[in-house]
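Complex record, two chains
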Amino acid sequence: MTETGGEGGTTWGSGAVRATVEAYWAAAAAHDWEAFGATLADDVVYDLPQSRERVRGKERYVRFAREYPGDRHIRVERIVADGEGAGAAARTSVTVGPRELSAVHFFTFDARGRIDGVTDFWPEPYDPPADRAHLTERY
Amino acid sequence: MTETGGEGGTTWGSGAVRATVEAYWAAAAAHDWEAFGATLADDVVYDLPQSRERVRGKERYVRFAREYPGDRHIRVERIVADGEGAGAAARTSVTVGPRELSAVHFFTFDARGRIDGVTDFWPEPYDPPADRAHLTERY
């Protein structure tokens, strides 16, 4: 990782941020919870805005990820790594049994480049409203 | 906007990408559809993965945005602008009548820095599963 200091504090480049997010997903996919924990700050906060659940701290969050039920296969579709190194976003496709879900994830980073905030969204499929069918196609 | 050329094509900095996303939201909030359209490429594609709806082209997409029912108030909570200038992500809080919803948006950009892809997610609230209450708190 390249550290580019500034008077206002430490700034991480988008390359370092991207690499950390990739390491986070690779570790989760491999069920390598030590490597997963190494991407996280000790005081990481995990938020689920849809259920308003929060998990505080690396130990609890690693346990949360480890205990998550079902056999999941996660494919990372896109990572957006902030040019100022302060954040990242990702889209994943998660297969849980026969279901394929899209998930969206936002990350923030501490001054050492570790993930100190994760916010996950799990958007569910819905039927399209009829009043816009004149403008849309289905895919 | 600053254009930093490269052999592989044109790369837009994260500052330019962020400014375009900010202009997109400001125009939507002001119902200024000319300014909204100016942020878009002619061949912009708008995707809603939850309903698998797609809107093709600037004209249709501006109309889609203009015709969207209800009085919406949109607050931009976070913009992540890719350091390589290829994409961006945003979180917004959208108030539609008495309801407040979180929305998530991904953007891609053409070589001239205009938005050529928008993907929106509308995650709905859900009740937390009981089997992880030992690790979570509510907020």
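Note: The first strand of chain B starts at residue 3 and ends at 6.
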